[in-house]
What does this fold into?
Amino acid sequence: MNTETRNCRNCKQNFIIAPDDLGFYEKVQVLPPTLCPNCRLQGRMLFRNFKTLYKRNSDASQKSIVSMYPPDAPYKIYDHDEWWSDNWDAKTFGRDFDFSRPFFAQFQELLFAVPRFALMNTNSERCEYSNITNGSKDCYLIFGCVDDEECDYGHIVWESKDCVDNLYIYKSELCYECVDCLGSYKLIHSQECENCVESIGLFDCRSCTNCIGCVGLKQKSNCLFNEEVGKEGIEKFLAEHPLTDPSTISLILSKQKELRKRVPQRHFFGSHNKNVSGNHIYFSNNVLNSFDVKVGENSKFVFTGRKTVDVYDSSFSINIELGYQILTCRGNNIMLSHLCSDSSDTMYSDNCVNSHNIFGCAGLKNGEYCILNKQYPKEEYFGLKEKIISHMKQTREWSEFFPKELSPFAYNEAIVNEYMPLTKEEAISKGYKWRDDIPFSTGQETIKYSELPTDPKNFSADLLKQVLKCESCTRNYRLIDREVNFYKNTGLLIPSMCFNCRHARRMGLRNKRYLWPGKCAHCGADFETSYGPEEQKNLNIFCEKCYLEEMG
It folds into this structure.
């Protein structure tokens, strides 16, 4: 098979389909894509709302609940316990397939009929204000968390404990305002670090302890802006620049930023890999054009995944073996589906759990041999499935992900607007929905930020009664008991911005999920990097070989 160049039917840009890609599509029996990888990614992320939450009533009990769906959403919304109860069965909404109509039109009608859970909190406890959680306990405003405990305010926090205000951290504890950090403990305002302990303002450091404002160090202790100063030097700096002074963190990060311009920078962040491309890939083999992968093999176009094997075009999915065009899924042989967990041999399905051999289903629990939620004998199921696939090929629906019209969310509600932002005018011109009434409050503040205690020792439960005003967007926000104790125990000030603005600031620190051509600043070797052209001019970006030789 030869490499093919195709033109994306959406953005009209050319994209490449490599021979290995064609082999994969043949293996999973789908047609090669008509959209480029970026447009395919955009189409999937439109279906995921992580952190836009609403107050509404349950359609089962009419009690007030917190939901990712607004009150006017055209769906039946149940709270967690109601959805998981045995009081209803998704198969009662089953229907025959109509060969005179397109598949997606029939599937949308099923989506409107079958109840959806208000928030996705699978195997989680006391995570009522978090969404898309799995195996987590006592987490608050954590979105996309896996196996976490007592973590607050964050996005993609996995296997971590007692962490506050983080983005893409893994196997960490007592971390604060960290981005893309792994295996770290008591790390503050740091980025791209692994196995670092009790440090502040680090960038791209490995196995460092009690360091401040350092860049690119490995197995170092008591370093201040890359100079060894001993324990006494660190204590002296913190005595002169205490964390209770709002200017201290700004000072540390500004000096770190200047240091980055002088110190060689790696073109790719990841470790324990073989034959990978993209960024933030760890413990993986043959994972290409992918970002934010923890343990992967023989996969491509994976965006945020853990334990992905033989997977193409996956977003926010874990523990997947053989998958294509999937969003927030877990299981084996899942194709063109959304929110399907602990399932196998699943196609074109949404929000199904522990179901196997299903096609075009929604809200199934423990389903098998079902099409549009109607159960069939095994032989009849496979025969009808093939007829529907032939029909979808004629209607040109086959192998395409769900169209944007089926998304429950407006563009600015969905996670897509954080990774691929559009203005309201741009979104509407491209046929996306937009909401102007996303809830927030202003003008209800009860205290000025300048009137708050500046000594963490004086933080008390009285702070929980106060309503604050974000210094960035002016919207109101409040504190919870656990975070106040966290600031008190770590000697940190109360944040002056609301969670959404803090999250946006962290998102702005990450490189884009895009690869540009680059050249090593040391040897001139070609590579692909997530650093854009302007960043390449301002930083000394090295290839992996030169970086390791220079930095150790």
Notes: The two ends are 41 Å apart (CA to CA).
